[in-house]
Amino acid sequence: MENKRYFGFYILLCLVVLVSNKSMAQQSSNVNISGLVYSYYYYDLSEGALDKNGFDLSRLYLTYRRNLSENIGVRITTDIGRVSNTQEKQFYRLFLKYAYLELRKPSWKIKMLLGLHYVPLLAFQEDIWGYRSVAKMLTDFEQKQTSSDLGIKIIGQLPGDFGEYAVSFVNGEGYNQAEIGKHKGLYGRLTLQPFPKKVPELKLTGFTSHIQHDQYKSTTVMTGFASFESESFDLGAEISTGNDQVNTQKVDFLGYSVYSIFKLTPKWSLIGRLDRFDPDTQTEKNAHFREIIGIGYKILKDVEIVLNYQGVQYDEGVASTNSDVFYVHLQYTF
Fold first, then answer.
1. By the 8 A CB rule, do 171 and 185 touch?
2. Domain count, the chain
């Protein structure tokens, strides 16, 4: 009951803020307030699911942006999503996703983020994938990356429009946990546009991260990502490898993800994606395979509905049941 009261209070507060700031936002280009919602209906046909189905709200983001000056801006994004407590009772939880100060130096084509910010890889990939409401990116799905963290981030453009770079120095615990010790995490991404004039749609990305959770535990990730974006279709391919280390014991993992988005008309799109992830490359038959097939329809520019199927098949050595779920996802901004 207490969580419901807080949730209702938050929704009311959001409405008050939106209404009270509407005129201010219209009068000044320095202020922007926006929202993003992911909701869905699912029908579970997995073995043992007994035709389970239902409606749910997976995310509600409310973002406030303001330019304090030409070179300084601020962003605060709150999020609402489902979590489970120790009694396995599900509820909606309100938390911060981003809260940072942005320092910009346009003449140098560089900016710095201070605070709770988006780390270099996932947000970059999600902007290209475009269907975060349908599925997370591979390393996020497999809990090898966090989407935001507390620390410092530097983003810069390469000369001649040949790409960009991004580096983050962070706590390493992610946005939903406090720092537990002195150890930190480091992320780095380099994205190249090898033919910025002739083929600006092509991007080649290299990424690495090392998160030292404590003296004895760490996670290292290395990713290669290629993407091509055009008016008629988008393509993406990722391969990620790395290891989890506890004391002297290392467990190597390997995964790949490929996707395509065919824009049939300005309103209709076909999406397809295949993931495979092996959490321990030295153990046989313990990987899993994910497939996503869907069709999207834009009701309005900022409102899209996506009918899709998502299936996960596990190797023989995995003590998990294969899943087959049909979804109707709705994403919209305001």
1. yes
2. 1
What DSSP line would sit under 82-143, residue for residue? EEE-TT--EEEEEEEEEEEEEEEEGGGTEEEEEEEEE-TTHHHHHHHH--TTT---HHHHTT
SS3 call for 3:
helix
Q: What is the CATH number of the domain that holds 252?
A: 2.40.160.10
* Local structure of 68: helix, strand or coil: coil
Within 13 Å, how many C-alpha atoms sit on residue 22's CB side? 7
Tokens of 295: 């069709």
| For residues 222-240, average pLDDT | 97
pLDDT for res 30? 84
pTM equals 0.86
What range defines the domain where residue 290 resides? 2-333
Three-state DSSP class for 217?
A: strand
Q: Would you state the structure tokens that stand for residue 249, as one six-digit string?
A: 């014991």
Residue 25 has pLDDT above 80, yes or no: no
CA 132, CA 294: separation in Å to the nearest integer? Answer: 13
Band of the pLDDT at 26, cuts 50, 70, 90? very low
Three-state DSSP at 15 gives helix
pLDDT digits (tens, 9 = 90+) for 116-136: 999 999 999 999 999 999 999
pLDDT of residue 202: 98
Nearest alpha-carbon partner for 271 in 245, 312, 227, 306: 306
Quick check: helix, strand or coil at residue 304?
strand
Q: Provide the residue type at 92 as one letter.
A: Y
